[in-house]
Amino acid sequence: MTDTAPTSDVEAEEGRLRRHLGVGGLSAIGFSNIVGSGWLFAALYAAQIAGPAALVAWLVAGVLVTLVALVMVELGATRPEGGGTVRWPLYASGRLTGTVIGFSVLLSVGATSAELTAIVQYAGYYLPWLYVDDALTGAGVVFAIVLSVVLTALNWFGVKLFGRVNTAVTVVKVAVPLLTVVLLLASGFDSARLTDHGGFAPYGWSAVLSALAGGGIVYSLNGFQAPVDFSGEARNPQRTVPLAVLGSIGLALLLYLGLQLAFLGAVPDDALGAGWQGVHFESPFGQLAVALNLGFLAAVLYGDAVVSPGGSAFVGVAVDARHTYALAKNRLLPRALMAVHPSSGIPRRALLLNLAVIVVYLLPFSGWQSIVSVMGTLYLLLYLAAAVAAEVFRRREPERLSGWVPGLRIITPVSFVLATLFVYWSGFSDLRLALPLTLIGVPLFVILWRRDREGSLVEELRRGAWLVVHLLVLTLLSGLGSFDGAGVLPAPWDTVVVAVWAAVVFPVAVRSGVREPVLAS
Question: Rounded distance, CA 268 to CA 264, Å?
């Protein structure tokens, strides 16, 4: 089967990318994409569910996320390409899978607009006329649009400038949480709180598993795939991409563990009268700072509440541009968007399209924001598609294995199961909108096939049927399950059912890809 765009054209544009990013720049991209404003609340939510045992939940989450990330490490090291996470599903599983996953990525641009909205919301602490009644005002929308233009402009002039700016922002994003940890440990930490008030695991060890999803712990560590999408602009990607992905996860995990420990030890005893479940703060670390007479830290935290999502949005704009560029290579978008500007090495047309999409997402249409808020869930589908792709490539071309991931044959099915659980744990309130929107990719594929007439329509539908069925069953199980669903499948058995279902689907998905020859890259 031939590639979805002539190889010469794709390679010509890929060759214009500037390979300037090293381990430091790529790691900063990964870290900035993982750690947004959520760090201000994750410790609170985890403590409410698991108490001090939330520390164990972070460690478990680190292991789970690393297992999923190892698949990205292998793919990024052996098949570096701009927007690679969008390309691999097409190479491995055909055009139907590539179109559905690609369409979900296109929709997930809404996650960047959500970060911009968060920036304006936090800025409303200082400028209250920007955000009123849980919504952007007219002035707030204008402010967010101007900010999106600024972030686009900073991405306009080359990946080297982007890397330098992001590294500077990342330093701030590391420094403020680290300062918070140090000051809280020095000023208000009491180790007795780790065992008093019901013990280290006051709600049982099952609560540790509940905190992985319900406490937002797993989601706080997501976003590690960003360095992989820059693999086409990395120096020596076989070395730099794996180090950046794993390094950014490790740094983020250490930071979250420090924040969790500092929070647990600094909560006043009078706030624990009803146990950890009764602890409530609107601004957890800010209020703790004020209680400990660290007023300047509270001011810094409110400022960082603007900087952190700003850094994430900055990376999001860049990643979205690489995705759009890759979707044009896939022919899901017009080929003109595949163009890379010769002197800057930036896919500027893709960058402009994403700016237009972000602006549309920011407009206050009735009911629009409730849809936009779930778009970030869609990028999780990349993880499960990548697991299938890695196993397909391992079987097709075992000689190309990087050596970074020993035991890949075992890791890929585990990664697929975990990625499926990450999607399921998003909850029915998100999935009931996100997954049906994603399935619009099926009729879109048929339309594109009628235009290009490449290969057999029946064969392509057969090859990608596993993904369609998987998403439909996931929607059904989510509606029946305990994560915002009807509760017909109670916890933890709903998670077990979903895991078993994923384990059944994985070999079917792999066989559908292995039967066909590899696509030209």
Answer: 9
